[in-house]
Amino acid sequence: MVARGEIARFWSLESLHMVSSDGGTESAALVDDNGSEEDYSYEDLCQANPRYLQPGGEQLAINELIGDGSVVCAEALWDHVTMDDQELGFKAGDVIQVLEASNKDWWWGRNEDKEAWFPASFVRLRVNQEELSENSSSTQGEEQEEDAGKSRHKHAESKHQMRTNVIQEIMNTERVYIKHLKDICEGYIRQCRKHTGMFTVAQLATIFGNIEDIYKFQRKFLKDLEKQYNKEEPHLSEIGSCFLQHQEGFAIYSEYCNNHPGACAELSNLMKQGRYRHFFEACRLLQQMIDIAIDGFLLTPVQKICKYPLQLAELLKYTTQEHSDYNNIKAAYEAMKNVACLINERKRRLESIDKIARWQVSIVGWEGLDILDRSSELIHSGELTKISKHGKSQQRTFFLFDHQLVSCKKDLLRRDVLYYRGRTDMDEVELVDLEDGRDKDWNLHVKNAFKLVSRTTDEVHLFCAKKHEDKARWLQACGDERRRVQEDREMGMEISENQKKLAMLNAQKAGHGKSKGYSGCPVAPPHQSLHPLHQRHVTVPTSIPQQQVFALAEPKRKPSLFWHTFNKLTPFKK
User: Is 80 exceeded by the pLDDT of residue 84?
Assistant: First the structure.
């Protein structure tokens, strides 16, 4: 806890109010585009939603349920990959039974495999816990009869009430989320901008990303949700259309999620200095924010975009087909899964372009545009023999990216050195499979061959693979390249020019002063296709360890297994 004397080192309480150009004091609450006041006071939110806002409130509620003998389950927001035997590994969407939540960062739980610790920030509690007792009933006759009685008692609520529970959770969490975004913008960003000696503009852009744009967008979204919310009969609320109306707007989360690892790294460096730790804690206290560190607040948008598909899936479960909102909820669920899928794909592409940029820097004699000007993903690579019309053959190493095929030659002495030899525009050619035997156009005997024929000129490229399996892989890769280009076009997949330039700049800095040497282009990762639906895991990120992305959000150390065992054995435990 920061003492008031330390807070005073940065500013007085009066300096929290910003003076507008006309000399007036700016209100702590922001006004929306229509001039209406949308924000809720902290006290109002605490009174209405104590479980979401008050520190430890959710923990108390969970432990009370567990203490009463209830089965408490949570759904994984994203993958938790671990090599630690004391940790519980799971995938996004998995259901975990929570057995103990006495520690705010790590909970003890069970899945189909085992019991172990897992990070609380990686899961979302189910709204309707009552249904779970039915699934966990015993197979023994007497126990089945007893469980059936409990089930009838616990399931006295109608399906309308179940839907009401989910609707209310969506509304309550949305209001609390707006409060958190407001606290970040007014409690942290505003104060940071006033202390130019501590933060540069670039640092603030790295730490906070586009969270102010997200705040503005979410205010409009909540306003529309409130209009569709039926306070008297919540189960009749029709909120599906709100998600469909704003689905394109949710794409702004992609930039924030992509920026988040850099924000964690920048914040981690600053937190090594005491004055920054005191500064951020002073911001939190003076804004009267809940007891969560700044890294926890900055994680909330990442968590939020992952929660929407889970919330809508649960809402769809309790929405009958006769309900007026059924079709919209179903469409909204698909739309938000697509949003999460697009964010994941952009995340993976950003990680990919860094590796591709480093690969280009390692190539000797590169000519023309940077590879990232048109491409963002390596699809396949390998050796092929390129044959000219006159029968001259050249052994080359080829790299197939989206939109282009790059040809390189290996150094005769240093096989790790590659020389640039040219590229083919895949958008302008057509793939032609050739049968083994004599090619009538070129009058050459070929085996394991295929052609790339230009659609606009008479240019033709003939390639031969060493084995039939190699040729099959290249034909498959060329087909994949065309499908991915089409998917990117449909998804609106684009990497900004600034991100491409930054990747090349970082690669050039990293390679400066080093001898040219090919260390291998990154292996083509499995593509996250939009089809089928069951493959669309809501995971952030998809290709690097979670601990790197959530380095600040995930707890540094889990509780000792000894103390968990001790607590379970002690006769004095209530």
Answer: no
Report the C-alpha gap between 264 and 299 in whole angstroms.
9
Token pair for residue 510? 């990293």
Q: How far apart are CA 549 and CA 263, in angstroms?
A: 9
Integer-rounded Cα Rg, in Å, for the chain is 28
- DSSP string over 504-569: HHHHHHHHTTSPP----PPPPPPP--S-SGGG----S-SSS-HHHHTTTTS-SSPPPHHHHHHHHH
DSSP letter string, 480-510 = HHHHHHHHHHHHT----HHHHHHHHHHHHHH
Domains of the chain and any CATH numbers = 57-125 (2.30.30.40), 157-353 (1.20.900.10), 370-507 (2.30.29.30)
**Residue 174 to residue 168: CA distance in whole angstroms:** 10
Please give, one letter per residue, the 3-state secondary structure of 206-233: HHHCCHHHHHHHHHHHHHHHHHHCCCCC
* pLDDT tens-place string over residues 346-381: 777 877 888 999 999 999 999 999 999 999 999 999
**How many residues make up the chain in this entry?**
574
Strand 393-401 and strand 404-410: pairing?
Answer: antiparallel
Token output for 72: 């408490």
Q: What are phi and psi of 385, to 5 degrees?
A: -100, 120
